[in-house]
Design a protein that fits this description.
The complex is a heterodimer of chains A (about 160) and B (about 170). With about 160 residues, chain A is α+β, with helices and mostly antiparallel strands. In chain A, about 30% of the residues lie in helices and about 30% in strands. In chain A, strands 1, 2, 3, 4, 5, 6 and 7 form a seven-stranded antiparallel beta sheet that branches. In chain A, strand 1 and strand 2 form a beta hairpin. With about 170 residues, chain B is α+β, with helices and mostly antiparallel strands. In chain B, a hairpin with a 5-residue loop joins strand 6 and strand 7. In chain B, helix 1 packs parallel to helix 3 and helix 3 packs across helix 5. The longest helix of chain B is centred in the C-terminal third of the chain and has 23 residues. Chain B is globular, with a radius of gyration of 18 Å. Classes of the chains: A alpha+beta (about 160), B alpha+beta (about 170). At the A-B interface, strand 4, strand 5, helix 3, strand 6 and strand 7 of A face strand 4, helix 4, strand 6, strand 7 and helix 5 of B.
Amino acid sequence: MPALLLLASALWLSQAPPAAPAPVKDSTEIALDAAGLTYTKLPGFYQLPFTLAESRRQTVYVRRAAEAYKSVGINEAFAICYESESEPTAEMLQKTFLRRFTIGGLVLEAPSETQPKWRIRYRLEITTKEPPARLKQMLSIVASTSDTLEKELGGSAAGDKL
Amino acid sequence: MPAWMLATGLAMAQAPAPPPSSTSSTSAQSIATPTEPPMKLLLDGTTLRYGTSSSGLSYTVLFDHPNNRKRIIFIGVKPSTIEDLAVHTIYTTVWTGNEPPSQDVMKKALLSTKKFGFFYLFQDAKSVWAIRFGANAIMGPTKTETLRDLIYFVNQVGEESELALSAPK
């Protein structure tokens, strides 16, 4: 009798609909989850809100597609620290790009089909195997450094838009 | 254990074996010891030939390129620190001038985003202006192979960028 029950159970199980496949997470998403960070998935990016001192907010973006060069694998993390409709002057570029950072650096971005403004981004690279605590620490550095730069550079960087 | 100590351990494992006791003291000084900086130990593991800049602030790796071109890659001897991260900058110069770079030159360099790394301006004590390309090596995650590849990447981008910036419009 128990054998019959087992057989019946096995038959029933074999006829059950297959479970829906779990969404596949990449290593960055797994690390963001493990770090307890809140994020939104955008096409090509993870968007993370950071609340800083004086109730200031910064949005950090992590590029979902990793970049690779031989053994080096990284995900770019950045925040927008300057945004303007007009092209930065030579003096502004000079003053801004003379800055040096303990980690990371600046990238100039021209208007394009996807966004209409001149931008300066503070960027650093996070290795693809970074442990969650380090990932969180580095993204916090992006947020706070970018916020400091935004205050110094002026412009209209909302920091909340791609 | 701090991450940099792990890196140190890795590099030490790849350092050459200690010389026999009859080796002269001069040779013995070039052998990696636990008191040497972690970056030196990592560099020793890359098998790249390197020296030290005249200021003593950087290790230098010299690359040969076509048309007898040479490129020096600088690696900071001492790391900068932020929180518990120890970061070495690896850089090369892609443009120099006695005057600041023009807006066109700056834009050409600063808009050429690479897979990783960053361009920045520099003015030395003699008021010579430079555009540099650099990348970070964070002690801990950066292993010997990664460091070597970062150095090669900076060399490659540096050479391409210098040629692009010197090309006529």
